Amino acid sequence: MALTLNRDKTHVTRVTDGFDFIGFNFVKRRSPRRGKNAIDIFPAKSAQQKIRNRLKYILHSAQPMMFS
């Protein structure tokens, strides 16, 4: 396929440090319940900010409703 790696985005990291991939953050942590290591997956901060910005735009541009 002749693909090339983007050196700015590609790097080796530890799972315990966490990493973002396709809008999600992956990090290995010890589970408080079972005490075993588990991978936590949650939305990346950049994805969360995009959602907040979109909601702010939608709610700000909504017309006020008039009740009679």
Structure commentary:
This protein is α+β, with helices and mostly antiparallel strands. It has a domain at 15-61. Helices cover 25% and strands 25% of the residues. The protein has 1 helix and 3 strands. A 3-stranded antiparallel β-sheet has the order 1-2-3. β1 and β2 form a beta hairpin. The chain is flat. The mean pLDDT is 87.
Features of the shown structure:
68 residues; 25% strand; 25% helix; alpha+beta; 3 strands; three-stranded antiparallel sheet
- Rg from C-alpha positions? 20 Å
Strand-pairing-aware structural class? alpha+beta
Overall, the morphology is flat
How is the biggest beta sheet arranged? 3 strands, antiparallel
* Order of strands in the sheet with most strands: 1-2-3
β-strand amount: 25-35%
Question: Which stretches of 5+ consecutive residues score pLDDT under 50?
Answer: none
Question: What's the arrangement of secondary structure elements?
Answer:
Layout (H helix, E strand, L loop, with lengths): L18 E3 L2 E7 L6 E7 L1 H17 L7
Antiparallel strand pairs: 1-2, 2-3
Structure summary:
The chain has 68 residues and is α+β, with helices and mostly antiparallel strands. It contains 1 helix and 3 strands. It has one helix at residues 45-61, and strands spanning 19-21, 24-30, 37-43.
